[in-house]
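Most newcomers find our protein records easier to grasp once they have seen one. Read left to right, the backbone structure tokens trace the chain's path through space. Once this layout is familiar, the rest of the handout is easier to follow. The record below serves as our worked example for the rest of this section:


***
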Amino acid sequence: MAYDTELADRIRELIDPEPDVTEKKMFGGLAFLIGGNMAVAASGKGGLLVRIDPAEEDALLERAGTEVMVMGGREAHGWLRVTAEVIRAERDLDEWVDRGVTYARSLPPKG
């Protein structure tokens, strides 16, 4: 399954004013990086991948439509998969994108 290009466009509109943004095709989707750190991605499996503060993971997993991202059969803690249904409304997508951008900005830039 290819990533949702409409979702990628919606993310791009939200993230565009951010400095140091790059886009990169990764994991069958389109990732948005801030200072070289992945923040969010339009997933090739549908929905959104969001980089989060691992300390917030348990609380965020209590929300409907979220689960730990699985990569190569292993859970990737600090990353959540958010279903497409959860991010239909622009304000909901904005909340998740902002969460990913904020966390990526807290990390040292990659050179």
